[in-house]
Structures are given as C-alpha cells and as structure tokens.
Design goal:
The complex is a heterodimer. Chain A is mainly α. Chain A has 2 domains: about 1-200 and about 250-300, Serine Threonine Protein Phosphatase 5, Tetratricopeptide repeat (Alpha Horseshoe), CATH 1.25.40; about 370-455, Potassium Channel Kv1.1, Chain A. Helix content of chain A is about 40%, strand content about 5%. By secondary structure, chain B is mainly α. Chain B folds into 2 domains: about 5-100, no CATH class; about 120-220, no CATH class. Helices cover about 55% and strands about 5% of the residues of chain B. Chain B is built from 8 helices and 2 strands. In chain B, strand 1 and strand 2 (about 185-190) form a beta hairpin. The chains are: A mainly alpha, B mainly alpha. Chains A and B meet through helix 5, helix 7, helix 14 and helix 16 of A and helix 1, helix 2, helix 3, helix 5 and helix 6 of B.
Chain lengths: ~475, ~230
Amino acid sequence: MGNIDNALGLAVAELSDQNYAHSLAFYRLWFDIGQTYPQIPSDQISDTIWNNRRAGSINNEHGQLIHQTAHLITRLASDRESDLLLSPHTPGLQNRLSARSLGEFFSNNLVVVRGECGSPLYNFYTDANLIAHWANLGYVEEAAIRNHVLQSLISHSKLYDHQADALIVLFKLAGATFGAYADPQVVDRCFELLKGHSYTPPFPNNDPPPPIYYNANYTPPNPSYGQRCNNFHQVRRELVQVSSPRVVKCGNRTKVFQEVVTLRERGWEGLPPPPVFTTGKPKPTGSNQKDPAATPVATALGLPNRDLQPQIPRPPPPELATTSEPGIVLEPPVTPITQSPSISIATLSDFTIADASDDEPPTWPTFADNSDDEPLIDPTAVVPHETFYFEDGNAEVLCGATLFRIHTTILFLHSPALRQMFSQTNLATAESPNGCPRILSTDTAGDFVTLLKTIYLPGFVVLPTSAGCPTD
Amino acid sequence: MPDFTTFSSLLRITAKYEMPTVRSQMLEVVRDAYPETFEGLGPSKPLGESVFSGPAPHPNEVLNLFVQQKLTSALPMAYYMATRRGLYSLMDRRLPRNATLSPRILQSAIGGLVALREVEFNEAHRLTFGPKGSHPCSASKCLSRAPTGPAALAAYQMVFDRIVGSSRFGTKVLEVPEFYEDQGGELQCIGGGGICSSCVGRWESGHAELRKKVWGMLPNAFGLKD
C-alpha cells in the first residue's frame, strides 16, 4: 500500500509540460494496480494530488512567484475526474481540491501573519497559484471570488509581504477572472496597496536573522512580529526572536508588479477568460477554452460576463462549490475591508423585532419559509396533525402537507396577528373542503406546532427567567 | 430552557404573530447567553450555544437566526462564538443549510476573525513581556528576574500559547486563560512553577484588560457599526 502511495505521489511530484502524458499514464497504471488491494481508499487520488501540490518550483527569493506546475496539477485533477477508470474514485475531485486550497489559503494567511513562516508560507504561495487556476476554470465559487479572496488579503492595516505576493500571483494568472467578478473598488484598493508596498529584504545568504531577545525594556513596535518575519526561511516559533525592521524596495518584485499593472492596462490580454456562472454553479470551461470575446466584454464593463457559454460543454461537477441558487441576479456590491477596525466601545441599539422585509440575498438560509425545498402539495398527501387536529375546531390551517384544525376564539386571545389571520373576512372567503374554512400558512409545520403548543399547553415555554406559564 | 429548534421556532413565531410577553422572555434568555455588555461575560457563566438543552446547535446556525431576527445587540457575541471555531467551521460546506453562512455574513465573520487574531497576537507580546520600560521581576526566586534566560523564555512561550492558541483554530480571546496547572494535587503556575504569583497576577490583570479592549472592538470588527 505504501509503495502505491509513493508511486502515485511520484507521478504528481514529477509533473512537467514535457512528461505530462507519461505521468498521467504512470499514475493510471499504478492506480490500476492499486485496485487489486481492496482497502485502497476512495480519496487516494485527491490526497496524492493534495499532498504533492507543492511539487515544482516557487523560488520567491528571486521574485519568482509562479508555481511552475500548478497548471498541470489542475489539469491532472481534471483528467482524473473525466478518466473512465479513475472517475468512480474521483467524484467532485476538482471542487474538493479547490475548496481545500481556499481553506488552506485563508488559514495560512493568518498563520504567516502571526509569523510562522517556512512551510505555511510556501503552502500559501502554492495555494494562491492553485486558486488562480481553479478560479479561471470555474471551480472557485463566485461568491468567494467576489467577496473573500482579495478582501482577505487587504483586510489588515498594512499589506504583508506574502499578501502582496499573493495579489501579484492572483492578478498575474487570473486577472481577467478577478477583474470581472471582484468589486472594482477592491481591485483598485489592491493595486493601490501594491503600489505603495515596500518589501522587507531577505537576510544575506538566506541566513536566518540573528536573534534579538525581547527583554523587559522592549516593546514590539508596529508593524507586528509577523511583518518582520515574513522573509525568514525557517519556522521561527521562538517568539522572542525578532529581526531589524529594515525596509527597502525589492527590485524583482517591483518588476513583477509592473508586469501586472501592464496586464491590467491591456485588459488582461492573454489571460484565460473569466468562467461563466450562469446557473450559479461552477461551469468547468476546460483549460484549453479560448473565447476571444469574453475577456474584453467582461473587463470593459467591470461586470461578470454571464452571457458567455463555454465552448466545451461538460456536465457540472457532482459536488457543488457554490451556494447560489439558479437564476438569481447578482448580489449587490459589498463594502471592501480596507483597514483594520479601530478600537471603540460598543453602544448597540436595543433588540428589534424582525419585520417582513429582508434584504438578504436569495442564498440566505431561510427558516420560516422552506417552500423552495418542498414540492407543490398534492391534496391527497395532506395529513392531519396527530395532536392539533381538533374535531371540534372551527378553522383549518395548512402548513406544507400538515393540516391543523384549531379554535379561532382561543387563538384570538393570544395575538392580534392571529386575530387578523382568522378574521371573518378571511374565513368567509376561504375554501372549506372539510366543512370549515381552511387558511394557508407560510409557516413550517414545526413552527406552527410550536405556536400551538405555546397557546394550548400551559407550561410549554419554561425559560430560566420565567416564573410560571408565560403565554400571552 | 428549550432545545434550539424550539427556541428558534419561538423566536420566529413570537415576532410574526406579535406575542410580546413570550418574546421578551426569549430575548431575556438571549441577552443572558449573548451578553450586550462586557459585564455580562461572567467567567463561570454558561454562554453561547451551550445554554440550550439537547444537542448544542452549531454557532453558525445561531448566528444565522440572530441576523434573520435582527437581534442586533446579540450579534457581536454571536459572531464571536462562530469565529471561536475558526475558518474551517465558518466555511464548512458539510453543514446543513441553516448553518451555512451567506457570503455577506461569512465576509464579516472572516474579517472579524482576522482583526481579532491580529489584536490577540500583538497584545499577547506586550502582555507576556511587560510594557516598555518595566523592570524585571524583583522576586528572588522568580524566573522573570532573568527574562532572557531559557527557563523564563520557555515559560513565556507557554503563557503566549495559552493566550493565543493555534492559528488553525479560531480566536478565544474573550475567554480567561488558565495560568495555573494541577501538579499532583497542588496548583502551580505553568512553566514549572518558577514564575512568582505577582507576575502571574500581572498576566491575569493584563489579559482582563485585553478582553475588555477586544469586547469593545467586536462591533467594528464584524462590521456591525453601520
């Protein structure tokens, strides 16, 4: 088992443009052999790709931020997912890997801000590269591109070195995608910060800095420890070691930044076009897709290009990387996080009663109305509630497929809203299939049961602060 | 105390059907578990989702309910409780629909988490090593007397870890860290007991100040000041 694991990992680790076909065949062969072992885990493919995703080179000491084989890793995942032999073992592989990259990206961003460099830093760079490719392919959910990825990098009061690098990577590889979907103000803010950013220089010969110990007379100045530690080449867990916060311009990074600025000025010319999120679900467009109309239209308007159709239609991934509902309109632009919040004392308003209007986006998880989850009610499927269907009741309430028969006079006593609901006018115009008027409610059956229990069962609501039976 | 399903039902129906008596009692419970003021954060008081009977709800679910019900006073604490579990919990796709955060809420929560962690890290340094110009501890047996010695540094590292924890998880900055540990039935300061009670007292009072400061910044951190 270990040998198979190693062999599969080797196929990923040795990826290159030249030997891609060989690696694919090699990987397929070893996985085929692996099938003779009944215990082979179904997520073997996902894990081997994930564990070896750092294969290839990122040498950020010399201004090199682009992962040399990240595009092959995403291609490998795509080929695995569509491979006849491997596809049963890889449902939603690209979605899983992209979600994992995104999670690690956010997490390692925080880790490096804290000052733990080394492995988290290189994983962060790798994941930034992968996210750029996944975003171009449509596997990073639209909301993440629009609201989270860039915002997370500019949410501090100062741009850290690794965050500046990540911005460059994202724009250099997926500028068209982020330019199309991210808030234009956020993109502007990114470039503004990049323009004014100065890198902390690496230490000579890549040596770790000499330790300077904190002592009682030392107070760490701003920027924080993490800022000064950004270019350390080893994990510096000892919190007492700091470097001199020398700040100079870094020539290589400046050059790379200028390349990105030029790319932006040319409308991200030559970059992969933004993916299409017409259904709110990721539409894989294939790494070879070229749609000359896509980039200019999207970038010229600064809006997602939702009318473009992928040239290579493929079924959507089984595991969805989005929460958007089909057919929804774009969400309103969100306020970018441009600086750290200032310290202030909270003075909050009192509790307020929820009103009927709710400006949340349609992706909002609703509680009171699950109608979009439920099919239209079949009249024959309506079931009377086992407790709250009183034969002597004078009105029926239908919640979903559950029918209640209640006494309006009792409900009247507890709430003006119920009095309105069961007004004579409403009752007179309602249908009466069972000999008494039936009111349709938008409540879930569960909520309505709670309401009836509160009204009919004294003592149902016993809260720690209540003395007895607090019905209205 | 009812379970969370019943509690959330009650919150919804008492709003919809205008039942102020029951609702005010519900809100009292919310105020107690998700306090509006720093004084409400009793160290031994059950807070957050642990107050509900039955299986504790996911903090994201509580946050969604409070946002939907516009319980603005409870939102800072509800956001904090959600960020306690870290990024993976905030973004977990395996959660049921009512515990999945909308993009807007997720953005606020992540922004808040980042802000709180930054303050936590920066302040923990000052807290551990003392303010600028302070003198080493004068107690003869206290390790802090030689603050750059290996034993003192090891103790400082433990103190820092107690306060900040791991970056992989969420912030716990509002919780009171335990600077003592049980050593064979005897309470001893972490770090082998070499730190004097006056230094530990300084950490405790410093952390209390940090908690107060963080509490004050919660609404801004989660974008609730608009």
